Amino acid sequence: MLSMLTRRLASTTTSRPWVTMMAWFLITALFVVFAPRWKDIAYDGDFEYLPDRMNTVAAAKVLDEAFPGERARSEIVLVIGREKNAEASTMPLSDLDLMVGDDLLRRLHHRLAEVSWQRAIRLGYESGPIDDAPEAAQEWLNRAKEELDRSITIDSRFYEAFSQFVPETEPTLTQPRMAISYFDRALLLRALDTDLDQADGDLEDATLLMQEIASAAIPIEQRDLTAWDGMLDLLSWDDAILGSLLSQPAAKLAVVRMSSELAATGNIATLESLDALLSQVREYSLRHVNESQPDVQPLRLEYTGSAAIGGETLIASRDAIRYTESITVLMILLILIIVYRAPLLVAVPMVSIGVAVAVSTGLVALLTDWSIRDVIAWLDMRVFTTSRIFIVVILFGAGTDYCLFLISRLREEAAKSEWNEACRKAMVGVTAALLGSALTTVFGLATLWFAEFGKYHYTGPIIAICLLVGLMVCLTLTPAMLVAIGPSVFWPGIIRPEDRPTKSLFAMPDSSSSGVGRSNTWDWIAITITRRPLLTFVLGIIALLLPAIYGWVNERSVTYDFSSQLDHDADSRRGFRLMSQHFEIGKINPVTVLIVRPEGVPREKLRKEIDTLSKRLYQQPGVVGVRTANDPLGDFPPDREMGLLSSESWRRRALRQHRLAQNYFFSHNPDYQDRLARLDIIVDGDPFSIETAKLVSGIGKMLGEVGGDSDSVWQNSKFFFTGTTPSIIDLRSVTIADNVRIKAAVVVAVLIILIAVIRRIGLCLYLIFTVLLSYYATLGLTVLFFQAAYGDAYVGLDWKLPLFLFVILVAVGQDYNVYLVTRIVEEQKKRPWLSALRYAVSRTGGIITACGMVMAATFFSMTASAWLPTLLNWFGIETDATTGLRGIIELGFALGLGVLIDTFYVRTILVPSFVALSGKRRPKSA
């Protein structure tokens, strides 16, 4: 059946080449024109794709229901301070230093006012008093007015300190004074029809500060604030009530609360806009402060926080995609030129792969768009920013391999038959091997559909779809172009029937039908291995076993620290280090607990019960603070005494009335009112570390016991956890389970395909064993390499690496085994088993090596963001690249190394030696 379909496909393709080519080029044009752009439909993030059954996912749903409207999902933390060392550890910030903070805050408060005002307009506000505005817009109008007041107050304080540094330049909207803040407040007060005298005074002040402000200022509704659209609030050391939480003598914090998730694609624009704002502050005020204090360690202004880390990660992903695609194309071109030294033979695979990439990515983008918009109700597809890297790399690698095998077989057949017949025979000869090779990869990747974690679940099948498109292109468009071009495709070489094929770097000399010629390297390798197969087999296994054991031991030694994905010198990591020198990280990143009772109770009773529960929480290991409605900052533990009329008591009462505390700890939703309480637990430790995760798990266990205690007031209550550490716990739990499930599924799927293609169960089981051994050896060597490369900064490989390495290496790594073994089986029909083995190794050795080098090169191109910017700078080429994404770099290195091991070791030594040993055990009549 398969052979009949293969012959029919070969006949159709070779008899109507121009129809085939026109059809593919038309399809390509349609997808390029009409398919949505990848970046418009790509998703990102990790926590968002946990299964619904996870506690943190349920917590997010409860938060959305109990606290409807805009809520903070991430934050950007701005840090002003000096590196903590022996000299500066106790040196407080001076008034001059704080001037830089005022320059920052006056700009940020104005930006929040702009965003709040625009949000009110989107919610239906046009003009008139706040009380007459739509209810949803009233909060934001109040916020806009408050933030403009704060901006102007801080601006006055800033200018008083900065007056000695004012440059002799034309004033702008924000320098030296915040003229735009006065102007905007005047317009807002007039729109609100209130404090009109104040509005007139503000307009006069704004004009005095900048005469052309009326024409220079863009109307509020026309300002492009897209980058800041997620900005909800600004908390800083300057807040009279919360300021103590964000202040240390030698450092100050400002927290921009964002409605966007930490890995939302919009964070790229936010971070780029923030960089521009911070550059203005550094140039305008920070530079003067550091220049005026030459004997003091320089003051620094940095940023960090979940949104900053997520934004930098996305920027690094974008750069990685750009560099990977460019380097992949260049590497493939270089290898094809070295292999063929024939321009048309280079062009045919490149055109084929270009069509495959365009059609497959367009198809996936279109299907994903339909899925998002529910055009096809049953379709469930998502793509991610980093998915494109895998698609490009695997399509270029696998597609080039398919073309190389087809052209290699065509070279053999063209020396025996006329051109059209040679093309048909070449297709018939390689189609089964290409199908077996492609299907092992497709089915292996498709098994990721069974994963619970969304990124695994969607990414594997998407790559599998693209590979199928690539296979179709290589089995139709590529032979059609070869038929249409004719024998001149080998120009400047010439191939005619009865001629010997033109040599290239990986070409094989012809051999007589009686055996294998011994005039090249692969002849020698084939004979050497098959002479002493037992010795070769044993030594080969032992050599891979040592690194494989190390890989087995370290398989779960991975990191879930998202910040570690970035380079050590990334802006957000520098900011994190500066912040951690002065502040307890747990206070900035607490664990939030939502307690939902089965029935409501009076609010005061609920407060008292929470206070009692918080005392038990303080007894848990690692808990250093519990924030509740009665103690919003969590800085009054049970053992701390507080007088009724003390300043701390007054501050605590003021904190309870703060706008954040009023709407934070209890829900106003009727379904949750007096049933739900929220509290924040401050845990001592790095939120990404395993040790902190164990502490949080202990807290969860204790609260679970409280909810199950029949004598507890919290009996049958539900406890939900949210925050970085609980999300890491859930992510780790899901991905570990997925690793076990998917690995088994991949092995079974690939084994089934191997048995269907090769039809020798013992040999198929051995091929699975070799690729598993190769996987663990690759993992062990990768761990050793990056331990040496990162030194003390090494915290483990990226948590996604083991599974992606396993799936891709097991699936793709079998390609070369399939190519070799199918040729052995084919030759055994015509020769004695030993002669067939030697002939197959000799005839496929060069082309499989070329294919392996192509695939390894494409995978190694994923590391380009680590070295290409530096290389370009050496040659004086400026680049706007940021930092490399360590996860992609590590995976690219591991995959490239694994393919090289499969190509030069497993396929060259382990497989032929095993086939030789199994052949010796056959009856001589065989």
Gap between N and C termini:
27 Å
Q: What is the count of DSSP helices, taking H or I runs of 4+ residues?
A: 29
- Average pLDDT figure: 86
* Class computed from helices, strands and strand pairing: alpha+beta
Biggest sheet character: 5 strands, antiparallel
Low-confidence stretches: 501-519
- Oligomeric state of the chains present here: single chain
Instruction: Tell me what portion of residues adopts beta-strand conformation.
Output: 5-15%
Query: Taking Cα atoms only, what radius of gyration do you get, to the nearest Å?
Result: 33 Å
What share of residues is helical? 55-70%
Overall number of strands: 13
Shape: elongated
Polypeptide structure, described:
This protein has 926 residues and is α+β, with helices and mostly antiparallel strands. It has 29 helices and 13 strands. The strands form 4 sheets. Strands 2, 3, 4, 5 and 6 form a 5-stranded antiparallel β-sheet that branches. A 4-stranded antiparallel β-sheet has the order 10-11-9-12, sandwiched between helices. A two-stranded parallel sheet has the order 1-7. β4 (247-248) and β5 form a beta hairpin. α1 (2-15) crosses α14. The longest helix is centred in the middle third of the chain and has 35 residues, at 306-340. The two termini are 27 Å apart.
Secondary structure layout plus pairing:
Layout: H1 2-15, H2 17-34, H3 38-41, E1 42-43, H4 55-66, E2 74-81, H5 95-122, H6 135-162, H7 179-192, H8 196-209, H9 213-216, E3 231-236, E4 247-248, E5 251-258, H10 267-292, E6 300-304, H11 306-340, H12 343-372, E7 383-384, H13 387-414, H14 419-446, H15 454-485, H16 521-531, H17 533-553, E8 558-559, H18 571-582, H19 585-588, E9 591-596, H20 603-618, E10 623-627, H21 647-657, H22 659-664, E11 676-683, H23 690-708, E12 718-722, H24 724-758, H25 761-790, E13 797-798, H26 801-828, H27 833-860, H28 864-874, H29 886-920
Parallel strand pairs: 1-7, 8-13
Antiparallel strand pairs: 2-5, 2-6, 3-5, 4-5, 9-11, 9-12, 10-11
Helix pairs in contact: 1-14, 1-15, 2-12, 2-15, 5-6, 5-10, 6-7, 7-8, 10-11, 11-12, 11-13, 11-27, 12-13, 12-15, 13-14, 13-15, 13-27, 14-15, 14-24, 14-26, 16-27, 16-29, 17-25, 17-29, 23-24, 24-25, 24-26, 25-26, 25-29, 26-27, 26-29, 27-29
